Amino acid sequence: MKAILHTYTCFDCDVNYVAACESGAYGQFILSSVGTSEQVYMNALDDCIYDEVSNYIKKMPILDGLDDSEHAEILQKVFKIACDKDSKGFYFDLYLAPRCPNCGSKKRYDCKITDPVEYVDLDYVTHTEWKNLSESEKNKRLEKEVNKHGPFGSFPSPDFIKTLE
Ligand SMILES: [Zn+2]
Questions:
Q1: How many angstroms separate the alpha carbon of residue 100 from the centre of ligand 1?
Q2: pTM score, whole prediction
Q3: Distance 19 CA to ligand 1 centre (A)
């Protein structure tokens, strides 16, 4: 999948670097590694694991009483555990700014499209490890991850907001 590159300026070391940025198109996500500058692409509309995890979340007793938008927020927060990790063993996460390849910082000034426009070929996110889990293992892992982000009914949690910074 070809994504448009953006130029970022690192807040901490002032180095310029390029990385893909969300296009804003419905259901299209660019997942960034929490530990490296690797990125992968996901189209939620044709990713069956996204649906599967969504259905698990809707059925979780601890999330009873939450509405659809709260379920969706939790889904986006915990979805990383259903995705294969990057080449160094770090999670890919939704709504995460790409890391500065120079100093590793997540803080950066606003990104802008490269001029002239450049593209990068991103791999699709994969779910090989997740697909090999049993139903009960999937449930157990999800519940553990969901529990990290409570209390429920007050999303986005302070923890969630931190990942957006
Ligand atoms: Zn930096």
A1: 5
A2: 0.82
A3: 13
